[in-house]
Amino acid sequence: MRTIDQTTQEVLSLASKHFHVPSDSLAPDDDFFKKLGINSLQALELLSRLENHFGIELPDYEVQGVSDFRTLASRIQSRL
Amino acid sequence: MLDLSKYQSIGAALKDALDKFAGETCLIESDREREKERLTYHDFKQRAHPLANALQNAAFKASDRAAIIMTNQSKWLISAYAIFYCGGVLVPLDYKLTPEEQWQLLKHSSASVLITEYPIWRQLTASPARASTANLKIVLVTEAPPNVDLSGAQRWEDFRGTGEPAFIPRKRSDVATIVYSSGTGGRPKGCMMIHENYLEQCVPFPALYPLWPRATYLSILPTNHAIDFMLGFFYPFVSGATVVHLRTLRPEYVRAAFPKYKIAYVTLVPLVLKNLQKGLQARFEELSLWKRRLLNALVAVNKALTGSRPHVGLSRLLLKQVHEAFGGQLRAIIVGGSFTEPQVLQFFYDLGISVANAYGLTEACTGITVNDLKPFRADTVGKPLPGMEVRILNPDSEGIGEVSVRSKTVMSGYLNEPELTAETIVGGWLMTGDLGRFDSAGHLQLFGRKKNMIVTEEGKNIYPEDIESAFESLPVKEFCVFAANYIWPQRSMVGEQLLLVLHLEQGHILTDELRRDVSARNSRLLNYKRVHGIVLFDEDFPRTASLKIKRNILAERLAQKDRALAILPL
Description:
The complex is a heterodimer of chains A (80) and B (570).
Chain A: H1 4-18, H2 32-36, H3 40-54, H4 60-63, H5 69-77
Chain B: H1 10-20, E1 25-31, E2 34-40, H2 41-57, E3 65-69, H3 74-85, E4 89-92, H4 99-109, E5 113-117, H5 118-126, E6 138-142, E7 154-155, E8 175-182, E9 189-194, H6 195-202, H7 205-208, E10 216-219, H8 226-239, E11 242-246, H9 251-261, E12 263-268, H10 270-285, H11 289-305, H12 312-318, H13 320-325, E13 332-335, H14 342-350, E14 355-359, E15 369-370, E16 383-384, E17 389-393, E18 401-406, E19 413-414, H15 418-424, E20 425-426, E21 429-438, E22 444-449, E23 454-455, E24 461-462, E25 478-483, H16 484-487, E26 498-503, H17 512-524, E27 533-536, H18 551-558, H19 563-566, E28 568-569
Parallel strand pairs in B: 1-11, 3-4, 3-5, 5-6, 6-7, 10-11, 10-12, 12-13, 13-14, 26-27
Antiparallel strand pairs in B: 1-2, 8-9, 9-19, 14-15, 15-16, 17-18, 18-21, 20-21, 21-22, 23-24, 25-26, 27-28
């Protein structure tokens, strides 16, 4: 079982790979819309990638209004 | 489609539709690859009547207001029908708003009933704004897990009466819905739509975009939005067609729904259409050289054959694989909610996929103009729909002026805002605030906005003054938010941005600390409400006697600055 810190790091790592940004440029409290300059559709693409990686399903309502990596990771953690 | 001229209300028309099309499928609900539900019109009635009965037993009566905050799903439409059946006024609210904004609109609308989903209710109850809303008498929550505390709400699934509910008739002139076009900050704009608005708006649709039993409409735009309420509920239901809801709106599941459910129509906002274009272009680029050449040749042939009007059958034959990816039955993609770039429209039309580019406002129900495809034009928003009178006010030397509309689809006014209503509907004409002109073929072309607002590619109307509360107590002398194009008109409907205008205290400069403060506040706003840059202004803002900012005069003064130099990016 992963710890929340591990989950958060994996979320950051996947986001950096998906959007081609250096992994050390992202921090847990970053707003991913702003930091990555992405729109809501691109955020949905990232969610699909995270679902595949963690082997979970994240209902759309669970991530409604979430815009930072830390909260996103905690929503994932609760479903692991 | 039912002959809507015979009906007085949405409820009466839907009531007949449920009987007339009883055996047809009205709703399909899918979650990822799993189909969760498939209802006939008869099933729909069986679900809705016990709810209507229970509402009546709870003293919900004609003209009472009931709000729905739900994602697109069958219970949204079932609940809406039950509300109309009881003669109630529906208040559809955006599930994407923050809980504080939702409470604000619940309060403003005076809704006595709220129907929502459990995850949304969980967030609403956690918000301190709940305390200020006393109107709510009944809260119904769908899909709540067993044994959870519902904080005073009742389970939607258990809220069922046993008797037959009484149908409460309404007149065409009665208010049917209160739809918030925007303005969740200082001044909520609740458009009071009457039954006639909807009954009349539907009339021209069958000639342009016919629906029939078993034709499928993919409902993606939120149903609280005027477009989906009409095209994803009322119009398909009075036509006996099937509405498909997806509980997961990830691009891959949306794509899969087209072939799976043989979708005939879908409405998208420009952002999603552009994304679809990008996806297709990426796939085309992966083709081998000779396949790409073949594709280009077929596209060229299709363009030549569909120059004057679409030939869907021919295009499906020529570009079989492209059309099969969309299920092979797609009649049109309707795009609305915001302005679409012509090259995006042209891309799809060249592939033989008609994109109905429409122009409308919540205040005018759904659509004012639409491209009739005779021939296809990517550079306009089409011609006025039958029944719409559209004129250009005070045109300049190029014929460009404010677009105004008179029709039976125009709202009766803004809730509790007589002054705003009088400014917006003048002598029966709705002032749209959009700038446009008619070309020689009678097509409307849009050239930007007259008012201080933006519309995002996701179809969100943003009024800058609604965002100002996020910057309250900023350590500056005064500030306000503007749409950049309001200050520096661009004659463009794209690339709209919000700007924060700061008047610093005497002797102060824009420090890194202040920038960080602005950025931090900005990041707490929903992503589409964020300001893109700062503009410094070193004079006192012009104000009225009651100290309100005279925005038009301030904008004129700001316009004297060079746009490129004045905007300091955040």
